[in-house]
Write a structure and sequence with these properties.
Blueprint: H1 11-16, E1 19-25, H2 32-42, H3 52-63, H4 68-73, H5 75-80, H6 85-101, E2 104-111, H7 123-143, E3 149-157, H8 163-172, E4 178-184, H9 196-204, E5 209-213, H10 219-228, E6 233-236, E7 244-246, E8 252-254, H11 256-263, E9 268-270, H12 272-278, H13 289-294, E10 299-301, H14 313-324, H15 328-340, H16 346-373
Parallel strand pairs: 1-2, 2-3, 3-4, 4-5, 5-6, 6-9, 9-10
Antiparallel strand pairs: 7-8
Helix pairs in contact: 2-3, 6-7, 8-9, 15-16
The structure holds inosine and zinc ion.
The site of zinc ion (ZN) has 6 residues, from strand 1.
Length: 388
Amino acid sequence: MQKPKPGVPTPDQIRRAPKVLLHDHLDGGLRPGTVVDIARETGYDGLPETDPDKLGMWFRDAADSGSLERYLETFAHTCAVMQTRDALVRVAAECAEDLAADGVVYAEVRYAPEQHLEAGLTLEEVVEAVNAGFREGERRAKEDGNRIRVGALLTAMRHAARSQEIAELANHYRDSGVVGFDIAGAEAGYPPTRHLDAFDYLKRENNHFTIHAGEAFGLPSIWQALQWCGADRLGHGVRIIDDIEEGPGGEVSLGRLASYVRDKRVPLEMCPTSNLQTGAAASYAEHPIGLLRRLYFRVTVNTDNRLMSGTSMSREFEHLVDAFGYTLDDMQWFTVNAMKSAFIPFDERLAMINEVIKPGYAELKAEWLFEAGHRERPLASGSAAAEG
Ligand SMILES: O=c1[nH]cnc2c1ncn2[C@@H]1O[C@H](CO)[C@@H](O)[C@H]1O
Ligand SMILES: [Zn+2]
């Protein structure tokens, strides 16, 4: 086996490294076995497979469609089994547990309450069930020796007309588990400006929101999300690359919108595997995250839908480490970016950075220094991690 490059984390180190996740859909991250269980319990007979392994594979294959619209069709099955309080509590608890076991220390997990009303729950009951599940999952994670904090983002579906109501719901629960608002769903044909009332309302309430933009549709969507709607962060935002030109000698020039995004430190919630599936990027190596990271955009790494993408935070980082040779320093940079961009209060973000993230990476980097000290030919420079 090839000796790993100094500072380039091993899969085990990637898993142990503290990670921060800002873009993860609750209805896109169920355990396949749980989908099967709840379908059986609630009498949902629409599943394409009832063997958990086969079902997991079915989700991945079906989502590997090259189109966002087809990708989104798979959510009919997960939403179908998330219609009762018990199901929502279970799914949310397992979500927190799974993320914690993967080394995620802080997560903002989103879902659309309006998609969970089919069996008679009210919007409030949906939010309270999911909150109860997250608290239960945090508690179980702690028992297993993992620490995690999970905040909810309430999503409104961009093709629907309930965004004002969902924004009010997010505001109502802002001191009890809900940290912000989002809009999601098919992008083409549903510009974010359809939901201006909701965004204006949230701004007047000094609340926070992110918008899925620049995923299936290009710069106009990003421009509207920022300059008309006032988004605090961009879900995906990969198409910002269309406003960046790379010359033959590697010189780079940014258009007005790309400059604005970088200058204002607008956080980009990038989800590499999801982008490959929906056709927003061709390969990991060609994913815009490589260039955007080099240019110091406020880039973050995320999972989007762990079930549909067969992924986890660790796997996303493994792919990036393979494609770009990222080191622990890069991982820490992405993680601090994400923590800085979270919707919880500044002092709490700072405490996470100083008390959890930095010490966690320092410990992992010390493992490299320790190893380097045991090599026949010690590294010339002092810090192994700095070589990356
Ligand atoms: O990558 C995405 N782009 C746009 N919408 C998405 C994506 N992933 C999931 N959803 C949509 O968000 C809803 C609430 O979680 C999901 O039901 C799905 O329709
Ligand atoms: Zn998403």
